[in-house]
Write a structure and sequence with these properties.
- By secondary structure, the chain is mainly beta.
- It folds into 3 domains: about 40 residues, no CATH class; about 170 residues, Immunoglobulins (Immunoglobulin-like, Sandwich), CATH 2.60.40; about 120 residues, Immunoglobulin-like, CATH 2.60.40.
- Helix content is about 5%, strand content about 40%.
- It is built from 2 helices and 28 strands.
- The strands form 9 sheets. Strands 20, 21, 23, 24, 25 and 28 form a 6-stranded antiparallel beta sheet that branches. It has a 5-stranded mixed beta sheet with strand order 9-19-17-11-15, with no helix packed on it.
- Strand 12 and strand 13 form a beta hairpin.
């Protein structure tokens, strides 16, 4: 039979929550289905003579003597309560292209009966968490839920670490006071993300019948209380809906590269004060690579197709210096743009494309830049 939660009890639960007290604060909760039994005894005298005691019974007992009464009994109902908490206390930093970015949450059964839990994920677009606003660029299609499980432990409670072996997407059973870690995993962080993209991700747990792998949701009892039936009360104070959630955040941190390329006419062959881009004129191209992020851009390389109607102008920076490389805070160097980088100095001009290797450019730390300059002649 199903009963409705008494208004007074529900009000009491709300009041208790407002005072910062919760039923889960008790070290031991009486398990659902426990029979609570009680029997009263009345002693009395008549005409100064002590009479045999009379025990109580639910229907009224008049027969004197020990054992003539009956217990007044009721079954302890199923008080469904739970908590969901973000584990780390801060965001999880990820990089575009990274495998297995992981958020961790702790789901705890604070009720008095074993429960399962259905798990769902939502992105909290526009919300602020850890001082950062979700900007809706991450994409929930890339997120999966995995429940911690460690076969080597043999107890199904997991080891608190995402191993990549986890497969469960719902919590099949948690005993009272038991908790388990749930991971929200991005198998591959999208390469389209840029520095300081944030995703606020909510994990919601909804109580389900244990043993159904989250497939059969619990239903609150309705109607009058029946002392002979274990009924269901949603005791969570956040809506009394057997549902709790918590939020965590992916924070994208990567190099923020800004690439700027400019050209200038150095000489038009006529000694002009303001040289023009005419056939035979020399034009310089300067490309600036600036890292506006806080993380180093590693193994930076460069390529640039020599434009049509121009010819690469060699040896303009030294005897064999076809390309000038000027990092911020570092010495200026040159290199020889020979086919397939035959001299292994890091620069090549192959099939009409100029390239500078990662071995030559290396890393660009946050806030630093490098300029790459070469010249062409207009045909």
């Amino acid at each position: 039979m199903i009963t409705r939660t008494p208004i007074g009890l529900r009000a009491a639960l709300v009041a208790a929550a407002a005072l910062g007290w919760s039923l889960s604060a008790n070290a031991q909760l009486t398990p659902a289905g426990t029979s609570i039994n009680n029997r009263a005894t009345v002693n009395y005298s008549v005409g100064g003579l002590v009479q045999a005691p009379i025990e109580s019974s639910p229907t009224g007992n008049t027969t004197p003597g020990a054992g003539a009464g009956a217990n007044t009994s009721f079954l302890v109902d199923n008080m469904i309560n739970l908590t969901v908490n973000e584990v780390s206390g801060n965001n999880t930093v990820v990089t575009p292209g990274m495998a297995n970015g992981v958020l961790a949450y702790r789901v705890t059964n604070t009720g008095n009966s074993p429960e399962g839990y259905q798990l769902t994920v939502a992105e909290l677009v526009g919300t602020i968490l850890f001082g950062n606003t979700d900007n809706a660029n991450f994409g929930l299609a890339n997120l999966v839920v995995r429940v911690d499980e460690d076969p080597s432990a043999g107890n199904g409670t997991g080891n608190g670490t995402y191993d990549g072996t986890e497969s469960a997407t719902a919590i099949d059973r948690l005993n009272p006071s038991q908790d388990i870690i749930v991971f929200v995993v991005s198998p591959t962080v999208p390469l389209t993300l840029i520095n300081n993209n944030f995703a606020n991700v909510s994990l919601t747990a909804r109580a389900a019948v244990p043993g159904t792998t989250g497939g059969t949701l619990e239903t609150a009892s309705a109607g009058a209380n029946n002392p002979t039936t274990v009924e269901v009360l949603f005791a969570d104070t956040n809506g009394f809906d057997a549902t709790e959630s918590a939020a965590d955040q992916f924070a994208v941190q990567t190099a923020g590269l800004t690439i700027t390329k400019v050209q200038s006419v150095l000489d038009d062959g006529f000694g002009s004060v303001s040289p023009r881009a005419i056939p035979g004129a020399t034009v310089a191209y300067v490309t600036t690579i600036l890292n506006t992020g806080t993380i180093a851009a590693q193994a930076v390389s460069f390529s640039d197709a020599i434009p049509a109607n121009t010819s690469f102008f060699a040896d303009q920076y030294s005897a064999t210096g076809d390309v000038e490389i000027a990092p911020s805070g570092g010495p200026v160097t040159t290199c020889n743009a020979d086919p397939a980088d035959a001299d292994a100095d890091g620069c090549a001009l192959t099939a009409g494309t100029l390239s500078v290797s990662a071995a030559k450019l290396g890393n660009i730390v946050g806030g630093a830049s490098v300029q790459i300059q070469f010249q062409v002649k207009i045909n």
